[in-house]
Specification:
Length: 241
């Protein structure tokens, strides 16, 4: 995945736009916020983590869909046990997503800590761990979607719809519904993978609200990842490569 023909281009693009987003957010906060506040570190970290995770997830879905057209048949000659191959591929994508987003989060933390000092660095370290775990789950979810769809273009469109279009659509629909139905739409929107990812990495809220929110976000996102990967494994085991 790290070599030519794998995800190397997607890795560089995702990490690049993640770091750029984090540095842009830091520049804005440094000019308007208290330089000693932890948000100077945690907010750029969250923005960079989200952007880089979405980038890696889209790249992963594209690669999985592309490999479904012939590459898996070759892989199965080397690893005939489909469940083992499925687990190995899933783990490789999850580890890659975690590694890329940790690099982005560490970069944001180091840069933010230069402005905010030791207090920001402590919360940044927590944020790096949260981003790493959440990114692994999001990319694992993307892997499951790509395995189910088996088409690079369609897989990217489906994933973009689930991660971006669906939460926005639910928010717009909820704003037009009566209060009881709007609350239902809000709950559904908050349960989508992107909303759970944002909650899972929201280290800026921890000093005031504790770890309950980020824990529920991590668990919810992990549930999506496990469900998508398990369903993809069942389908992968039953159809032709």
């Amino acid at each position: 995945m790290r070599r030519r023909g794998g995800m190397i281009a997607g890795i560089f693009v995702a990490s690049g736009i993640g770091i750029l987003s984090a540095m842009t957010t830091l520049a804005v906060l440094a000019s308007v916020a208290d330089s000693s506040s932890h948000v100077v570190v945690t907010t750029p970290l969250e923005v960079g983590g989200l952007v880089s995770a979405l980038g890696v997830a889209l790249a992963a879905t594209f690669l999985v869909g592309r490999d479904a057209n012939g590459h898996l048949a070759i892989a199965l000659t080397l690893a005939p046990k489909r469940w083992m191959l499925h687990i190995a591929r899933a783990a490789a994508f999850a580890i890659t997503g975690t590694a890329v987003c940790v690099v982005v989060a560490v970069t944001a933390t180091v840069a933010g800590s230069a402005v905010a000092g030791a207090t920001g660095a402590g919360w940044g370290a927590v944020g790096v761990m949260l981003v790493g775990v959440a990114a692994g789950s999001l990319v694992l979810f993307a892997f499951g979607i790509g395995t189910l769809v088996r088409s690079p273009g369609v897989g990217v469109l489906v994933l973009a719809g689930l991660l971006v279009v669906l939460p926005l659509a639910l928010a717009l629909v909820g704003a037009m519904l009566p209060a009881p139905l709007a609350s239902v739409a809000e709950v559904v929107a908050d349960s989508t993978p992107t909303a759970l990812f944002l909650e899972a990495i929201a280290v800026s809220t921890v000093p005031n609200e504790g770890f309950v929110g980020v824990a529920s976000g991590q668990l919810g996102l992990a549930a999506w990842a496990v469900a998508a990967t398990a369903l993809a494994g069942v389908v992968f085991g039953r159809r032709d490569a």
